[in-house]
Input
Amino acid sequence: MPDRAPQPVDRQLPTDEARDLIALVRDIVQREIAPRAAEEEEAGLFPREVFRLLSGSGLLALPYASEYGGGDQPYEVYLQVLEELAAARLTVGLGVSVHSLSCHALAGYGTKEQRAEHLPAMLGGGLLGAYCLSEPASGSDAASLRTKAVRDGDDWVLTGTKAWITHGPVADFLTVLARTGVEGARGITAFLVPGDAPGLSAAVPEKKMGMKGSPTAQLHFDGVRVPDSRRIGDEGQGFAIALSALDSGRLGIAACAIGVAQAALDQAVAYATDRTQFGRPIADFQGLRFMLADMATRIEAGRSLYLTAARLRDEGRPFSRQAAMAKLFCTDAAMGVTTDAVQVLGGYGYTQDFPVERYMREAKVLQIVEGTNQIQRMVIARHLAGPETR
Output
């Protein structure tokens, strides 16, 4: 490994509290996450103890209200925490993003009684959440989901299968979108389902090309009974709730992507300044220097884009278009930067002796999750030119 240590990102943070928060995250990364990341990813080990530590440190609750155990942090701070975590291990950074996404429905649309009953444990009680929208036959076309919830007295009975669920086999609670009425978006309702509910089971986790430490699996709902007190929002409001969550979730993916890209750039710079060929460091060669410059520029542009969207969100202004742009640009940038990092390291970049091959494999999934980048382009175009004509 190169001897040159990467310099921490010089962050623009709004408060001293936020600066202390980033310092705490960097300490946890150095002590608890980075030293074991490569080994545990290769072995497919999920770092549950790390998530318990993050929960106990308040890092699973940052963008939520302190009234319910949250950190009262603006989204621009929360996203920079995600970036720091993802740079050390994407399984952790993306896992925190998914957990936050899983809390969004209840925090934003639950009744005061529901929030008081469930949110403190969800945010700071060591629990871990999963978000259940996608199905085997409904990914990008989420409004066509088939999982059903049928009213039975004071309960709802859920039947169906969810797919591609991060944390599916290990989650303590699930935000589940199910069909309670007519076909299409207007017939979908949101529910908060315990992870140990009778009738709920997980399939064998998917064998993925990257993020092997993060369990992704189908979840089967075989007559899972959920009391109406766990219905979130009104009947038929679920799809609108899901879309509002995804706008925020896309910013989480954007931040994670920039974290992975930053880690890859740090490795590439360290290697290029340490490796010598023809009697001098390869970083002296103009072709390679230009590659590093382009990689760094993409990262800075992506970081600025996701922070701009986050600040709009923090101000209560519309940010859907900017969130789609950030997700699109940052994840494409991560794919490009990690590919270039492998090229900078040459043959060594293609081996597991260096982490850049892992970063490249991990970057790919970020172009797919939380809405593929093709979907992001559709969202952006609709903001520009209006809905497609039929």
Notes: The chain has a mean pLDDT of 96. The first helix runs from residue 16 to 43.
